[in-house]
Write a structure and sequence with these properties.
By secondary structure, this protein is α/β, with parallel strands linked by helices. It contains ten helices and five strands, in the order H-H-H-E-H-E-H-E-H-E-E-H-H-H-H.
């Protein structure tokens, strides 16, 4: 439904009128309520009558009343009594807000932790009763004590940590058609006295065992490589053993050479360069090493020895 501008104006006026009527009623109720408080126990009707009587009471100077000079008073005017029509509007009680105490919130109480009852699965197997073992006699106990070992916890043995080699250098030698044992002994004495090395001389029954130990790192150096007899050993172990120098003795049909484990030769080059330089210079050719004790031979060949030990590295 649409309202025209005139209809909207009428609605506005009517609404304003209703609002004013409501305001008037509220104000009148408030006034009456305040007057009731002032009058105390006196009723509204008695108050109204008293006010009306005071309003209609004649004054001394009112016409129709004679003075005190002796003139008789005029007949009193009839009193008109009228019952007023009073509209009593009961006061609308104004509700007052009553403060209601808000109950305090309960203090947080920690909930008890739930107790989990273990679930016990019903046993399905029927227990088998095992009869108690017979009581052993003292003699039987003695025999059992001698035969049954007590149960003990065996600790696992720790893996031994490999220790450093006990010797600084291991010289390998074997029985050959050319004597190389005395050359090995002289070399061992020089390494011990001049280079303060802990030397071990190892004897092998066959050249095969000697070269196998050299290739596998169980021996370090040999002065007993006989050329051309040992060429097959060199070919089979090529890459595992390395030659030191050229030769340290020679004859009509042989040459004695010095060979070493490949890793050990590299170690000498890095840590004991002067030892490697000495071994490369050693040459026993025509020096008659087989007829003298090692220390005597060293004392008698001081010039050769000084040349071999001259290291500028």
């Amino acid at each position: 439904m649409k309202f025209s501008p005139e209809n909207r104006l009428y609605v506005l006026i009517i609404s304003l009128g209703l609002f004013l009527v409501i305001v008037t009623v509220v104000l009148q109720a408030a006034v009456i309520s305040s007057r009731q408080d002032q009058l105390g126990d006196e009723g509204i009707l008695a108050t109204f009558r008293r006010q009306l009587a005071s309003a209609i009471e004649p004054d001394n100077n009112t016409p129709g009343t004679l003075s005190q000079s002796g003139v008789a008073d005029a007949a009193p005017a009839p009193t008109v009594t009228s019952t007023p029509f009073i509209i009593v509007i009961p006061a609308t009680p104004i509700a007052t807000a009553t403060e209601t105490a808000i109950p305090a919130l309960p203090t947080d109480t920690p909930l008890p932790a739930p107790t989990l009852a273990p679930t016990i699965a019903p046993a399905t197997d029927t227990p088998t009763l095992i009869p108690a073992p017979p009581t052993n006699t003292p003699s039987e106990n003695a025999s059992l004590a001698n035969t049954v070992a007590p149960t003990s916890t065996v600790a696992l043995a720790a893996t031994p940590v490999p220790t450093a080699p006990q010797f600084d250098i291991r010289l390998a030698t074997a029985s050959r058609r050319v004597d190389c044992a005395n050359m090995t002994a002289i070399t061992e004495r020089i390494l011990s006295n001049r280079f303060q090395m802990n030397v071990q001389v190892m004897f092998f029954d066959t050249p095969t065992q000697m070269f196998d130990a050299l290739a596998e790192g169980e021996a370090d150096i040999t002065l007993c490589y006989l050329d051309p007899d040992d060429r097959s050993f060199m070919r089979d172990r090529l890459g595992l053993i390395r030659q030191i120098g050229v030769q340290h003795d020679a004859g009509e049909d042989y040459k004695l050479q010095m060979w070493a484990n490949g890793a050990y030769k590299a170690q000498l080059r890095d840590t004991r360069a002067c030892v490697l330089d000495f071994l490369e210079k050693v040459d026993f050719t025509d020096l008659n090493t087989g007829s003298q004790e090692p220390q005597s031979w060293i004392d008698g060949h001081a010039s050769e020895l000084s040349t071999w030990l001259n290291c500028s590295l």
